[in-house]
Amino acid sequence: MTARAEIVVDLAAVRHNVALLRELAGVPVMAVVKADGYGHGAVRVARAARAAGAEWLAVATLDEARALREAGDTGPLLAWLTVPGERYDDVLAAGVDVTAYSVAQLDEIAAAAARLPEATASARVQLKVDTGLARGGAPRAEWPAFFARARAGETDGSWRVTGLWSHLACADEPDHPANDAQQAAFDEAVDHAVDAGLEPGLRHLANSAATLLRPQARYDAVRVGLACYGLDPAPGVDHGTDLRPAMTVTSRLALVKHLAAGDSVSYGHQWTASAPTTVGLVPLGYGDGVPVAATNVAEVVVEGKRRPVRGRVCMDQVLVDLGGDTPPAGTEVTLLGPPGDGRPTADDWARACGTINYEIVTRLGGQVGRTSRRYVGG
């Protein structure tokens, strides 16, 4: 490794995970590759997911959908997060399914659909309803007007409704009462849509956690994000699924120095050596996605041993306690990777930093430019 820091993504692990989830679910898989594939690289992960049998891809923004189309993906693709005034024209022309939350949004999509060239088929629209997450999606009080407008757009040829979906708030807690309540609300929304004259199309509710833990929520497709990358969407819940983490993050020691008892390190002197020791300087910091919350709590691996972070995480660097060892500058440092050989995992970092594994990989993997990204297994 010659880079100061490197993100290694195992595409074979992605393929394994997607194929496993496809077999488990028994329905089409929609692989979520938003946020640059959770820091793993959307384009390469998308290709791996397609190769493993993912019938659909999903992203948050229209720009993310454009990037996949520009990279050559032509398969079913859903985008779901827009703001008023965004232009839908090119993504509709590219056959991207766009998501609507409101009558006003449907009106914007209709205006864009009217500008499509005659050779282009009508727009593809999926309808999202709020079943209790209270985030995106049409709230229950607006369902009658929302579904009526969607049906009117089908009648006048503006679009074809291709799906109806919602998102669970507590799927990682299988016994939480919100799961039953949201699924009942989703079934009610489907009934409302049918009463309005719509064919709901692809019904999807299950995220990664529900795919693993709630078979009754799988409907016509499952949306799997975190699980595609081999990370556990419900830590602490036994689901017995052989997910394989795809990301490894490494760096190199830039400097090794001796400390005397009483020496303090980094901003604010938040750690002081109680005995003589050595510390190594790792050229990664919060500018590279290392959480400041890792201060004095996270661990890395150097020469096969766990080494604790010492002192406050800085923008570009962090110190680790080498316990008196003096490996040479340039020695590899592993921040996280798949379990084995003592490596900290994304879950270990999440527990140490008081956050979730989603945030760890998305932050660390999303800093291409300051770090390099390399693919293996594909």
Output the strand order for the largest sheet.
11-14-17-16-15-18-10-1-19
Helix content: 25-40%
Q: β content, as a range?
A: 15-25%
Number of strands: 19
What is the structural class? alpha/beta
Average pLDDT over all residues: 95
Query: What is the first-to-last residue Cα distance?
Result: 19 Å
Tell me the quaternary state. single chain
Order of helices and strands: EHEHHEHEHEHEHEHEHEEEEEEEEEEHHE
In CATH, the topology of the largest domain is named TIM Barrel
Number of helices: 11
CATH H-level homologous superfamily name of the largest domain: Alanine racemase
Tell me the number of structural domains.
2
- Shape label: elongated
Give the CATH class of the largest domain: Alpha Beta
Biggest sheet descriptor: 9 strands, mixed
What would you note in describing this structure?
The longest helix is centred in the middle third of the chain and has 19 residues. β3, α4 and β4 form a beta-alpha-beta unit. The strands form three sheets. The protein has a nine-stranded mixed sheet. It has an eight-stranded parallel sheet with strand order 8-7-6-5-4-3-2-9. The chain has a two-stranded antiparallel sheet with strand order 12-13. Helices cover 29% and strands 22% of the residues. α1 packs across α3, α6 packs parallel to α7 and α10 packs across α11. The two termini are 19 Å apart. The protein has 378 residues and is α/β, with parallel strands linked by helices. The chain has eleven helices and 19 strands. The protein has two domains: 165 residues, Alanine racemase (TIM Barrel, Alpha-Beta Barrel), CATH 3.20.20; 130 residues, Lyase, Ornithine Decarboxylase, Chain A, domain 1. It is elongated, with a radius of gyration of 24 Å.
